[in-house]
Amino acid sequence: MTSLKRILLALLLLIIAVPAVMIGSEFIDHEDAESAAAAVPSSPATEQQIARGAYLARAGDCMACHTARGGQPYAGGRAIPTPFGTMYAPNITADKETGLGSWSANDFWRALHHGKSKDGSFLYPAFPYTNYTKVTREDSNALFAYMQTVTPVRQPSQEHALRFPYNNRILLAGWRALYFTPGAYRADSKQSVEWNRGAYLVQGLGHCSACHTTRNAFGATVAKSDLGGGLIPIMNWYAPSLTSDAEAGLGNWELQHITALLKTGVSPRSTVFGPMAEVVSRSLQHLNDSDIQAMAVYLKSLPQNDPPPAFDTPQPDKATADRVMQAGAKIYEQHCAECHKAGGQGIAPAYPPMNGNRALTMGSAVNPIRMVLNGGFPPSTQGNPRPYGMPPFGQLLNDQEVAAVVSYIRNSWDNRAGFVSPQEVNRYRSIPLD
User: Fold this and answer.
1) Looking at the DSSP assignment, which residues form a beta bridge with residue 162?
2) Is 24 helix (H, G, I), strand (E, B) or coil?
3) DSSP 8-state secondary structure symbol assigned to residue 369
4) How confident is the model over 379-390, as a mean pLDDT?
5) From residue 148, how far is each of 89, 104, 117, 212, 247 by CA, in Å?
6) Is the peptide bond before 308 cis (omega within 30 degrees of 0)?
7) Which helix (H) or strand (E) segment is 88 a member of?
8) Confidence at residue 139, expressed as pLDDT on a 0 to 100 scale
């Protein structure tokens, strides 16, 4: 989308924002009264509550965004690139001047549940309060109790570097009017306690939809395609659909394979790479088995009726396809077959299978292209402490060769997917790795 179109959309948000602010002001007192009336511990936090908060912070993967590489835990400063400019995660240590040390439990609840800072200003939705609003008040209080024990670090939060007009917070009033409704998770009485626990974690603290759902031009997730997959902006990894058997849908997986993937990053069916490897490493591997099981039960239950996505690029004629397959077969035999085997069966879990691996056969080929170019490792976890890595081949293979081997993998054995063009490979060759 061109910059002009984005600016026009921003102006549309501004038109919506003005009446939204006027209407919203009528509810400010009600909102504050709700927070003040909520159950806030009258006595100091207990060790049990603090421990629960630490666990929930892991479930929410809070450290991933709020810790800069090489920086102090939770002291902020990590750059978060977006299509609208760069945002910087704030300091959330217990420092009274630059962190959350002067906040109350009500202030913290308002941030999670309502997406507003201590001073009442709107928070940008890079902070996933659209998911965190589902967190219960009890869990919010536990999280706050834990954050108050985090070692204070005096480090002022860095100002966001958003382009005009997105640096005007008044636009968020229009955005919220269109795309945000506060509301804690409500259990589905037709489902089991375990299913509801999994739904609570996936929809709330786990904020899975933040990556696995397509975003519109305003940066909002599209409700009708919830967990239906999408290209992660700026990062240029495709988070596959969890509601389609053609992608990463888990409806026909065995439950133990889902739990293994979430807990260790590897399973007989697949292996996680890219951003999901960080999620498993920093967050999911630290969750207890019952919560991992609950998430697996919920994810397995999601409807699996979405049709296969369209291919990203035009497909070649038969003669051209045959030539690509022949070239790709030679490259695969030379560089890939030793680990992934001639029949594509791999050696699970060290070397994931190529045959039947839906991570390789989705409409979007960005993930296998990037793996061939840049290589990568599954996460190092307690259940898989010494993961086998994939070496990079970008320095050995040109764009045409990478396209050939990826196309071969996507169309050999039982796989039937789209061919990849050299132009598509070139598009991702210079993408930053972090």
Assistant:
1) 85
2) helix
3) H
4) 91
5) 18, 10, 17, 31, 41
6) no
7) strand 85-88
8) 97
CB 350 within 8 A of CB 358: no
Lookup: tokens for 363: 């409409």
How far, in Å, CA of 387 to CA of 377, rounded? 7
What are residue 250's phi and psi, to 5 degrees? -110, 15
Confidence of residue 247 (pLDDT cuts 50, 70, 90): confident
Q: Is the dihedral of CA 104, 107, 111, 117 positive or negative?
A: negative
Question: Which H helix or E strand runs over 230?
Answer: strand 230-231
Q: How far apart are CA 275 and CA 263, in angstroms?
A: 15
SS3 of 255, please? helix
d(CA 422, CA 21): 49
CB atoms inside a 10 Å sphere around CB 184:
16
Listed residue (208, 247, 218, 215) closest to 232, CA to CA = 215
Q: Which amino acid is at 73?
A: P
Contact status, residue 365 vs residue 422, Cβ threshold 8 Å: no
First to last CA, the chain: 23
Structure tokens at 399: 């764009």
Q: Check pLDDT > 80 for residue 434.
A: no
What does the alpha-carbon distance between residue 324 and residue 328 come to, in Å, rounded to a whole number?
6
The amino acid occupying position 306 is D
Token pair for 51: 């421990």
Exposure of 188 by Cβ count < 10 A (0-12 exposed, 13-18 middle, 19+ buried)?
A: exposed
For the chain, the residue count is 434
The answer to whether the CB of 69 falls within 8 A of the CB of 57 is: no
Residue 194: Cβ-neighbour burial (10 angstroms; 0-12, 13-18, 19+): middle
25-34 contact pairs (CB < 8 A, 24+): 28/120, 31/110, 31/114
**Regarding beta strands 238-239 and 85-88, do their DSSP bridges make them parallel or antiparallel, or are they unpaired?**
unpaired
For the beta carbon of residue 310, count every other beta carbon within 10 angstroms: 8
Q: Is the pTM of this model over 0.85?
A: yes
- The tokens describing 419, both together, are 């061919």
The token pair that represents 245 in the structure block: 């058997």
The helix/strand/coil state of 76 is: strand
List the structure tokens of 362: 């989705």
Q: Which residues pair with 87 in a beta bridge?
A: 80
Q: How far apart are CA 434 and CA 414, in angstroms?
A: 33
CB atoms within 10 A of CB 282: 16
Is residue 21 scored above 50 in pLDDT?
no
What lies within 8 Å, CB to CB, of 128 at 6+ separation is 207, 210
